[in-house]
Design goal:
Elements (H helix, E strand, L loop, with lengths): L17 E3 L5 E3 L11 E5 L4 E2 L6 E2 L3 E6 L7 E8 L13 H7 L1 E3 L4 E7 L15 E6 L6 H6 L4 E6 L10 E7 L2 E4 L10 E5 L2 E3 L14 E6 L2 E5 L2 E4 L5 E3 L2 E5 L8 E7 L3 E3 L1 E7 L2 E4 L14 E7 L2 E8 L7 E5 L1 E4 L5 E3 L1 E6 L6 E5 L5 E9 L4 H12 L6 E6 L4 H6 L27 E4 L12 H9 L3 E5 L7 H8 L2 E4 L6 E3 L1 E5 L4 H9 L8 E2 L24 E8 L4 H13 L3 E4 L7 H9 L4 E5 L7 H9 L3 E5 L4 H13 L34 E8 L10 H4 L17 E4 L7 H9 L13 E3 L13 E11 L7 H13 L1
Parallel strand pairs: 4-16, 18-32, 32-47, 33-34, 33-35, 35-38, 40-41, 40-42, 42-43, 44-45, 44-47
Antiparallel strand pairs: 1-2, 3-6, 5-13, 6-12, 7-11, 7-14, 7-15, 8-13, 9-12, 10-11, 14-16, 17-20, 19-28, 20-27, 21-26, 21-30, 22-28, 23-25, 23-27, 24-26, 25-26, 29-32, 30-31, 36-37, 39-40, 46-47
Length: 807
């Protein structure tokens, strides 16, 4: 199906081999075999539907099989040929805009993977050399002038950079995956389903274009000349009876949808109840009990009951002169227990009733999300619930902070993952705490009427089996009476003597919140932890306030600096502090660096700080003071607290965001690349992201969240593997907030709607300057909701789910 296609002229000429052409002309060729492959076939995994006016639409993977006689400089040229023709408008006087509107082009360079040699005599022997290939996109020279002027990227060129050795008859494969198409708004307007072909041909270096060539055309997509619309809906995994947004198909050409049975079905889960089918230009009807659709009658609407998890109905008459549309509304859905994107597909008879057409949106119509809610009647109850959940096997020690203020609890999030200096009990005879994870509990300033034993914290201490409590903050935060009552709590009996053993109580405190945070930062039995280097992050996550211009390229001791005047920035940072073992030091807003914070950073040997918040939170003067201490400052800041939490979430989850899409070139790492799911502790780049959400106008719901969202899965020398769950902050109980909405849209499940092609793109971690591996796209499929239904209403949570589904 070359249709007079002009083949690209190869420009590379190898030094080995030659070919004699007519007239005795001898040309150097790219290999000793001097010919196109004797075996050259192509196969597609599928031919999914693509639609006009949409970008980033997945096509089927293509596998090429070739004989082993490639040469350096040879090329496999793979143009897109809708219906076997050149791309763009057929009008010879077309404009570039007309060509672009009617064309199908590659979204980005697909992934090209040379495979193993096929089995057979001699195949895969040590004398066979695997092909090395570079891939680029170009404009097909056979395209009309308008397409040339538009610079359509409708041709993929695979160029061999080495020559074959071994047995020429052996065959090898080249896999093309991740193929995605951008389709112009006027493409396919001639009517009917248009096959999208790729037509690989082989060009031998040094020979005239097209000599020799062995085309191997294969269809890997189908262009449906219809418009399919559906606003994605997010639902809770395992839920039932969820309302799902309508699904609509609009013809571009009348008669595309034929008469007969049609059905709407999800790829997972089931449709339930009844839905309404509304037709424009058609007549429709419910399927009669006989199962045979009528050929006359019908009406513009029909009510259809779910049958076998799908809605089935009849198209009684089709359109003839004016395009029509079908809309299915009132859909209800029961989700599977597993999370993930769910496509919704309408299947109808084709125009000639000789087969079926399927219509699927270019993004999932439904996304099921695992949602768990962490909530108690009070902040103290929530902390106890979180501790019991995060420490199912109990704990030897616990941290206790005030529920009436936030500074001490947020500073304590660092100690949750650190071995502590002193834990001396009759059980262990003194020494350093052996466990490096400690739950955080909250307590009122003073004991209630029933005594300290009646508090949620005391109940959790008993349930967890704690023998040492570290009170964070002075007596103005947790009273001396509470400390006394706790120290009188019997937790066991000494062997042999029978003497009672009491709970050990240790207080860590300063005169101010900043001093207490500094004391906490220095209370670990280890020095400050190092953080993997992210020099490319400098300047990337900052809204404009001052920071250092560059950062360390090796792992250095790192801490977090946040302001003590408001809670949001330190709250968003608390999970990372726990997970990575980074102390949080506090400094007042609008002032220079607090002296106690400066002393703690110096004593800990900190060489890098993450300043969380803009200039109004941590002043430029404080940044200057940090730099005078020889500390690099990476500021992470947005224009609102919700946006700052988003920037921190991006820093936590992404790696090498500055790389061009699809590139594997080395860059300076600019993110921590956390897979952000507890199940992925063993490795990076899980495809499933977990996020947590909380209201950002009050701290009570998420004050103890760090023990849930932080997973400190490694200790000892060197940087830790980061597996933190980002905490996003909603604006208030009624509004999701700009940062939360944007992050969920970036990391949602719809393909091709963000600069990253849908989802967050991360790269396997590597040292600065090292070559990065292939990108992994991660999607939010789990949401930990902090706070009850008054803090995060069902409507607000539904907004979060819809943002995930639509993003």
């Amino acid at each position: 199906m070359s249709n007079g296609r002009k083949f690209r002229r190869s420009i590379g000429v190898a030094a080995v081999g030659s070919a004699t052409l007519a007239g005795g002309l001898v040309l150097a060729t790219g290999s000793a075999f001097a010919a196109a492959p004797t075996t050259f076939t192509a196969a597609a995994s599928s031919a999914p539907n693509v639609y006009p006016g949409a970008t980033g639409q997945p096509a089927g993977n293509v596998t090429l099989t070739l004989s082993n006689n490639f040469g350096s400089g040879d090329e496999v040229v793979i143009p897109i040929e809708p219906n076997g023709a050149a791309n763009g408008s057929t009008n010879p006087t077309e404009t570039a805009a007309q060509a672009q509107a009617s064309a199908v082009t590659y979204t980005a360079t697909p992934t090209v993977t040379p495979g193993a040699f096929a089995s057979g005599a001699g195949a895969g022997s040590t004398s066979d050399t695997a092909p090395a290939i570079t891939a680029t996109l170009a404009t097909n020279p056979a395209d009309p002038a308008g397409a040339q002027n538009a610079g359509l990227k409708d041709e993929l060129v695979l160029k061999f950079t080495n020559s074959a050795t071994g047995t020429a008859a052996d065959t090898y494969s080249i896999a093309l995956s991740g193929i995605k198409y951008d389709v112009g708004s006027a493409a396919g307007s001639t009517g009917g389903a248009v096959p999208i072909d790729v037509a690989p041909s082989y060009e031998v270096a040094g020979l005239p274009p097209g000599t020799p060539s062995t085309p191997a055309t294969v269809q890997n997509a189908t262009l449906q000349n219809t418009t399919v619309t559906e606003t994605p809906t997010g639902v809770v995994a395992g839920s039932t009876g969820d309302a799902v947004n309508p699904f609509a198909v609009t013809e571009s050409v009348p008669g595309t949808i034929g008469k007969g049975t049609a059905s709407l079905a999800p790829s997972a889960g089931t449709f339930t109840g009844s839905a309404t089918v509304t037709a424009t230009g058609f007549t429709v009807a419910a399927v009669p009990t006989s199962g045979t659709c009528p050929t006359t009658g019908g009406s513009s609407t029909a009510t259809v009951a779910a049958n076998g998890g799908s809605y089935t109905f009849c198209v009684v008459s089709n359109t003839t002169t004016t395009p029509g549309s079908l809309t299915i509304s009132g859909i209800t859905y029961s989700a599977p227990a597993s999370d993930g994107p769910v496509t919704v597909t309408l299947t109808t008879q084709n125009a000639g009733n000789t087969g079926t057409n399927t219509y699927t949106t270019t993004q999932p119509g439904i996304t099921t999300v695992a949602v768990s809610r962490v909530a108690g009647q009070t902040a103290d109850d929530t902390a106890a619930q979180a501790a019991n959940s995060a420490f199912p096997n109990g704990a030897t020690a616990a941290l206790l902070a005030s529920d009436a203020e936030y500074q001490d609890a947020l500073a304590a999030s660092y100690l949750e993952s650190q071995p502590l200096k002193t834990q001396s009990t009759a059980f262990f005879g003194g020494g350093t705490q052996t466990s490096s994870r400690t739950p955080l509990l909250l307590n009122p300033y003073d004991a209630p009427n029933g005594g300290e034993s009646a508090t949620a914290a005391a109940n959790a201490i008993r349930k967890l089996g704690v023998n040492t409590v570290y009170i964070i903050g002075g007596t103005s935060a947790i009273s001396a009476d509470v400390a006394t009552q706790l120290s009188q709590t019997q937790i066991g009996t000494a062997p042999f003597t029978g003497q009672p053993i009491y709970l050990q109580v240790i207080r860590i405190a300063g005169q101010t919140a900043e001093q207490t945070a500094a004391q906490v930062a220095q209370y670990s039995s280890t020095t400050a932890n190092t953080l993997q280097p992210t020099p490319g992050a400098y300047g990337l996550y900052n809204s404009g306030a001052s920071e250092s211009t560059s950062g360390p390229t090796t792992a250095v001791p790192t801490a977090i600096v946040a302001n003590s005047t408001t809670f949001q920035d330190a709250l968003a940072s608390s999970g990372l502090a726990n997970n990575a073992g980074l102390p949080i030091v506090l400094t007042p807003a609008g002032q220079g660096l607090d002296s106690s914070a400066a002393g703690a950073l110096t004593n800990l040997g900190v060489k890098q700080v993450l300043v969380v918040g803009g200039n109004l939170a941590v002043s430029d003067q404080a940044v200057s003071d940090l730099q005078k201490l020889g500390i690099s400052v990476l500021r992470i800041a947005g224009t609102t607290f919700s946006a700052t939490a988003e920037e921190l979430a991006l820093f936590e989850t992404q790696t090498n965001t500055q790389q061009a899409s699809g590139s594997t070139a080395a860059t300076q790492p600019d993110g921590l690349g956390s897979p952000t799911t507890a199940a992925a502790n063993a490795g990076q780049n899980s495809p499933t992201l977990t996020v947590a959400t909380s209201r950002g106008d009050d701290y009570a719901d998420a004050l103890s969240s760090s023990q849930v969202v932080g997973y400190a899965n490694s200790t000892g020398a060197g940087p830790r593997t980061i597996t933190v769950v980002p905490l996003l902050l909603n604006a208030d109980v009624a509004n999701i907030g700009n940062g939360t909405a944007d992050f969920l849209n970036r990391a949602g499940t719809a393909p091709g709607t963000t600069t990253n092609g849908g989802g967050l793109k991360t790269y396997p971690a590597a040292a600065a300057g090292a070559t990065q591996g292939a990108a992994v796209v991660e999607h939010v499929l789990s949401d930990i909701v902090f706070g009850g239904t008054l803090a995060q209403t069902p409507t607000l949570v539904q907004t979060e789910l819809n943002d995930i589904a639509a993003g």
